Amino acid sequence: MNETIELLKSHRSIRKFKSDAIEQSLIDELVRAGQAAATSSFLQACTVIQVEDRDKRERLAACAGNQAYVATAPAFLVFCADMQRHRLCCEMHDADMQAGFTEQFITATADCALFAQNVAVAAESFGLGIVYIGGLRNRIDEVAELLELPDLVYPVFGLCLGHPAQNPEIKPRLPLEVVLKKDRYDSSRDRELICDYDDQVREYYRTRTGGTKEMSWSEQISGMLIKEARPHMLAFLQRKGFLKR
Hints:
This protein has a 4-stranded antiparallel β-sheet with strand order 1-2-4-3. The radius of gyration is 20 Å and the shape is globular. It is built from 11 helices and 4 strands, in the order H-H-E-H-H-E-H-H-E-H-E-H-H-H-H. It has 245 residues and is an alpha+beta fold. The protein folds into 2 domains: 3-168 and 228-239, NADH Oxidase (3-Layer(aba) Sandwich), CATH 3.40.109.10; 176-214. The longest helix is centred in the middle third of the chain and has 24 residues, at 102-125. The protein has helices at residues 3-9, 24-35, 54-63, 68-72, 84-92, 102-125, 140-146, 176-179, 190-208, 217-225, 233-239; strands at 46-50, 75-82, 129-133, 153-162. Keywords: Flavoprotein, FMN, NADP, Oxidoreductase. This is Oxygen-insensitive NADPH nitroreductase. InterPro entries: Flavin_OxRdtase_Frp, Nitroreductase, Nitroreductase-like.
């Protein structure tokens, strides 16, 4: 193994941060690292909004399900999939942009995720902790209005950054055989392997919570997927000019 792989495998979500500020020069460097990520067709379809305004932070925390660390983390970034500047490029060359294609939504979202993960890994390489905030999509209309997002821009998730004030255990991941297939999609052993993995996850939760929570991964997922998953998202994205065709 090397230091990069060890860093990647040591990731934990951090939800308690020290009050120490992060220098703006470091945040700038983290975002430059994000820009270095792979980008589909050189679209570079990610915009990052660094939110410093206290009132906006409080409101974003409420939108994300009252996750207090959104308001209190030393730094909070919102990663937006952005096709607006591409419309500008077309206008600069008197071209009629064909917007609204599902493929454009996929590539912009993928660009955003790749960009953000580079930022996260770069931050952890400096000893910072991070946690992604997908909860912004709970009340995505309010988030978009608060951040004054134009058409063809939507907030994919937020990211809290700061010096860790906790040291949680690493959450176990699925067995390699479940996620790495060779030549074809062979799921013949997935049930058996997931059952074994369920035992690991139960023990992780039992240890982490002092025995107050015992839940397997498959139980957690099945409980999640019998519920609606932010059904407002499609209409919001279509209003923003995405997923029209």
